[in-house]
Amino acid sequence: MNTTFLITTLTTLVAGTLMLRVYFHRVNPKIWLIGPNLVVLLFTITSARIILNPNELTNTPDDRSSATITIDLIPPRAIISGIVHQALGECNRGEIPKVQGIDMRESENGFVVAIRFCIDADSSESLVIHGAEVDVYDVARALYQSRVPIAHVKMAGTFPLEDPYGFVRETEVLKLSLSSATAQEINWNTIHYNDLFNLLDSVWWHPSISAG
């Protein structure tokens, strides 16, 4: 584009010089010499301007072809991990982290997400169930309403229980699964957290919890 501009400018100035020569030659034969000097001066200024600012002609406000658009894409696995941590929170129960692990496996229908988490409550069965229901609701709702395709959500909740030998150990007391087919039938804007457990594809409670 710079070369074309220079050629056009030079052609215009030369043509103007010839017209000046024809017109002023009748009045004063020497006055038309101003034309060539003017050509040299303007051509020099124009050339120097283009050399010093090579992008002045090419990058105009209306020329969007050279614009570069950068989009930061967050990987789906990072989005899923962020959703789970935000839904469950980061408050640990002693040395036990709230989010103990997240496993993500990609399938044809979306991601299969398996989550292991600790249930925050005291030894009361009702509080354990309530805490688990709230956690499961928050995670399932956030995942299935995200822009990441989710095929299946599996969750395992842990809670400290005393074993037959008298030791208190962190034990899985809850296992559940919720498929995308079931999740699509749920109105997440109206369903209550304690009603979700009646719609899950599968639910298992530890006998010490379910028996009360």
Q: How would you explain this protein's 3D organization?
A:
- With about 210 residues, this protein is α+β, with helices and mostly antiparallel strands.
- The protein has two domains: about 1-50; about 75-210, no CATH class.
- The protein has six helices and five strands; from the N terminus they run H-H-H-E-E-H-E-E-H-E-H.
- The protein has helices at about 1-25, 35-50, 75-90, 125-145, 180-185, 205-210; strands at about 100-105, 110-120, 150-160, 170-180, 200-205.
- Strands 1-2-3-4-5 form a five-stranded mixed sheet.
- Helix 1 (about 1-25) packs antiparallel against helix 2 (about 35-50) and helix 3 (about 75-90) packs antiparallel against helix 4 (about 125-145).
- It is elongated and about 110 Å long.
Question: Topology of this protein?
Answer:
Blueprint: H1 2-24, H2 34-52, H3 76-88, E1 99-107, E2 110-118, H4 125-144, E3 150-162, E4 168-179, H5 180-183, E5 202-205, H6 207-210
Parallel strand pairs: 2-3
Antiparallel strand pairs: 1-2, 3-4, 4-5
Helix pairs in contact: 1-2, 3-4
Summarize it.
The protein has 212 residues and is of the alpha+beta class.
